[in-house]
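Dear Dr. V.,

Thank you for agreeing to look over these. As mentioned in my earlier message, I'm a first-year student in the group and I'm still getting used to reading structure tokens, so any feedback on how I've presented them would be very welcome. I ran two proteins. I've put each sequence directly above its structure. The first is here:
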Amino acid sequence: MLNEQSSDAFNYLYDNYSGAIYTIINQIVPDKDTASDVMQEVFVNIWRKVNTYDAAKGRLFTWMLNIARNASIDKVRSKGYRDNQKNQPMTENESSGMAMSTNPMVNDVGLKKVLTKLNEEHRKLIDLSYFQGFTHEEIAKLMGIPLGTVKTRIRTAIIQLRKMIG
């Protein structure tokens, strides 16, 4: 039935698998609009490749799940997606619960002034992470230091900042 690529076959796939596929996509792509776009791309891709599915190699759901997972990862790694995320306003619970924007008395300019009180190394890491939007992994590669060191130093810097502005 799938190899015939009939509308009934497509409806069957969508009706039976779209919920589970969307859940997986949304775990990787947290933005619901973007996740919906990825979902649409995934089902178009599944439909184009359905005749390459080999039941001897695994279950249909697993095959579809891999297509969805790969498309989701590709989306969040894309330059366009990352640039779009950098332009989004920060929410209070972002940055692993350590958002510095929760104190209404500290604005961006004031925060940058407080940053000058940090040592150069910590100031650079906070700038790269919070103002320029680099991930911890990207910072580690950029600065040539281990990922764990980057995370520890950023956490130390945030603790120091909290004491300064608290």
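The second protein is here, in the same arrangement:
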Amino acid sequence: MAMGNFVPKEGHELVLTSVFDAPRELVFKAWTDPKRVAQWWGPHRFTNPVCELDPRPGGAIRIHMRGPDGTVYPMTGVYQEVVEPERIVFTSAALDAAGKPMFELLTTVTFGEQGGKTKQILRARVIKSTAQAAPYLAGMEAGWTQSLERLTAYLATHSKE
């Protein structure tokens, strides 16, 4: 789904539904265990040299995504709600070079059982943005889509854990 020149503004919500051939408990762990998250978070060919998660209400999220060109994109966040294995709600912010938030998202991920598989619904809503956020927000759908493709691949090779 190409977004063209569309840039999400405050209040815009992206909704992506996925079905994974893996048990719900494993998919939930793939979202809350930093060692697992580091293996799939971010667009294709990105790595996560820093991936620190404290998955409980008020717990911190700190991820540094490194692009293929070596550029590091730091992100922080806070868990609002963690209901194992059903739901995770967190805020996240991409930081500029000075460490200031460029935009903030409220992300809700729900996990439902579906015949031994997991139906996941991800909702990412823009709650704050600055002018410099535009290029990042323009890539939000592609970035999440690629992350979920990486999560699918991760689960395919780890579904028996």
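From my reading of the second output: The helical segments are 24-32, 34-40, 134-138, 140-158. The mean pLDDT is 91. Does that match how you would interpret it?

Kind regards,
E.
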